[in-house]
Amino acid sequence: MRQTVSADEFETAYDTYSAAVYRLALVYLGRPADAEDVTQEVFVRLLCCAPAFTGEDHKKRWLLRVTANLCRDQLRGIWRKQVTGLEDVLLAAPAQEREALDAVMALPEQYKLPIHLHYYEGYSVAEIAEILKLGQSAVKMRLKRGRELLKIELEGSY
Amino acid sequence: MNINDYRRAMDRIVPDDALKERIMNQKNIKKKYTPARRVLTVALAAALTIACLFTVAFAASPELRTAVLSFFRMEEREQVPNSSAKPEGPDISKADIGELVKAQYIKMDKYYSLSGDLLTDLTWSEDHRTLEDAKFWEIKDNELVPVEIDLHTQQMDVTYGGVRYRGELYWYIRDGVLYPFKGTPLGVDTQPEDQWYVRAFSGRTDALLLCVSQGRQMEYTETSLLYHLDTGETEELFAGVDPAILTDSDGSIWSPNANRALITGRASAQYPNGREWLYDRETRTLTDVSTLGGAGAEFGIFVDDDTLVLRVYTYTPDYDCEAVASWVYDIPTGRAVQTLKESPIYNEQDEDPYGIIPFYGGWAMEIGQDGSACLINLVTGERTVLENFTFQKNIDFWLNPSGSKLLYYAKDPETGGFGISQLGVIDLEEMTFIAFDREGYENLHEGGIVWENDNTISIEASSLDGETQYLLLYQF
Description:
The complex is a heterodimer of chains A (158) and B (476).
Chain A (H helix, E strand, L loop, with lengths): L6 H23 L2 H18 L6 H22 L17 H11 L3 H11 L5 H8 L3 H14 L9
Helix pairs in contact in A: 1-2, 1-3, 2-3, 3-6, 5-7, 6-7
Chain B lengths: L2 H10 L4 H10 L9 H25 L6 E13 L11 E7 L3 E8 L4 E3 L2 E7 L6 E9 L4 E4 L4 E9 L2 E12 L2 E6 L13 E5 L6 E8 L6 E8 L5 E3 L6 H5 L1 E6 L5 E6 L10 E5 L4 E4 L10 E6 L2 E9 L5 E10 L4 E10 L10 E4 L4 E5 L5 E5 L5 E5 L7 E5 L5 E7 L8 E8 L4 E8 L4 E8 L4 E8 L5 E7 L1
């Protein structure tokens, strides 16, 4: 069942979740302009197509799932340049933070999304599987391989 | 530099304020939207009506009668270890849980991995390319016994697709099994020559699977070569395959005997979920998986050397996966039999979720609206009701590598990590389902659970202060 989202609810949802949506899109797409486009589309879909949410967790997972799907869709349809850095968005950040961000961003797409959702958003394997529409074994494998590929210290950071 | 640097960097990233205004302006545009779920529900209702007719027919047939498997909850409880005293090296203790489960707790000063049945400590050079030290322990009942391993090394140097792949390759052979590995220099200083990894291949000890890749993100492509350890030479595994398919592939999945492979194609505008091809090494034939048996499948899964389970998913316009159907496909004869009619897929986000949970392999589970659970063998279509068991949202199942056992665990949502409050296994050959309750799990941060092999489950954990690591091993 779909629900109607009022202007106030929409604004609250945007204020609460837009950063998470934007960050995931940025990790996925690498370019701030593309991430903004996807963020915009995600919240337009919240207005037109949102299911009846069972709670805030549900709403956030739905937004992130739609974000991942739209990013994937965007990447499929267009020719893209390689993206190597995030200078535009992190000019003032300390070097080690920029390096850490670059390290995650440099991972292949199939690894960096699970890594971001697990280590930044704090989702479990089952929740990531739900968001990315993957089997749990695939998520576990991608987290494992992502950790192997990532040259930053992750041990003890679960 | 650690993951907290990543978190701090991410915290700094927020969308531009103007974006909100843009969206608030755009949201006034009215869009006509037809709920896809309603349309599909009509179709599903029709399908289910037909399915019900078949179910009646199945019920009348003795060999297709639904079987029953009783859930056995053990009286014995596990006392999860939680000492935070940091050991100087790995240390092991053993605990039997009742007479049915053997548990071993490995306490560690840092995280050690398992390779085969050996606890492994590998020390890499700063650039993660060269192995500087390697220690191995055999895991006995209550003892970690250091073992000497004849570790081989070779400078791998292969050119494929115009890219020269190089690096140190390491392997050892134990009990007739090859364990290959390499460093992991990929990351901030990734070089094209680093983009390769290795795997054992079909029980061979003289050669291994070398997977070489190019590109990043959606441009990622990967192909597999057979690498001969004695000569350092490679052999094409996909002879006769259209090069355009290989250059657009992001990987391959091999049958157990490696005579066949599923080549996975990248997603495209025409094929938004990607494509798959079945390749037969003997006949050098390539078949689009969507054409197999007329099922229109999205992808296949090897359940043995000659059998695929084919899956078809149905999506809503907002990309929610809403229904699944499954066929079993006999590769030699080309015969496909539908073993699961199109059925709603279980969606945990629904208020009262119900439907099918497909596992990666030859099994699925159907959850009823009342929490009842029924195992479905996707090869035979046989159904087995789980008696005395109620499925809940915090429960997960996971097939082992050979598909003979199903891990079961219940998570405590109040804990920060997995917080596994109950652990068990369904033995799909013996048709038994046992589980035990765990006490003290909340004193550890449980970060992961995995099948280490067909019989051993491991839980990765750390003390709450992060000082001590644990590897908890279970055999049912």
